[in-house]
């Protein structure tokens, strides 16, 4: 994905602690953030993400928008200050 695994884990941890990010019944917090980062980095569409993550289009869309809304609801400085 192009991000150090320790930084990725810290990002997920900070999002869980400072926002309402939590795993769903079928999708972990890490996978939700990975889906968001992959779409943001590559610009790939829903169909490509469905193939990559083996999830439905609805799940991909919900994960992307859930993480996006978390990031825009808090000042970015609060979330990334400790990374």
From TrEMBL:
The protein's name in its UniProt record: DUF8040 domain-containing protein
Pfam families this protein is in?
DUF8040 (PF26138)
Could you tell me which residue ranges the DUF8040 domain spans?
A: 3-72
Database matches in InterPro entries:
DUF8040 (IPR058353), HARBI1-like (IPR045249)
């Amino acid at each position: 994905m192009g991000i150090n695994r320790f930084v990725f884990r810290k990002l997920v941890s900070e999002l869980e602690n400072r926002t309402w990010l939590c795993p769903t019944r079928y999708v972990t917090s890490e996978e939700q953030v990975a889906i968001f980062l992959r779409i943001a980095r590559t610009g790939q569409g829903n169909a490509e993400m469905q193939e990559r993550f083996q999830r439905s289009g609805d799940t991909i869309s919900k994960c992307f928008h859930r993480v996006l809304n978390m990031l825009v609801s808090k000042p970015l400085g609060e979330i990334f200050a400790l990374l």
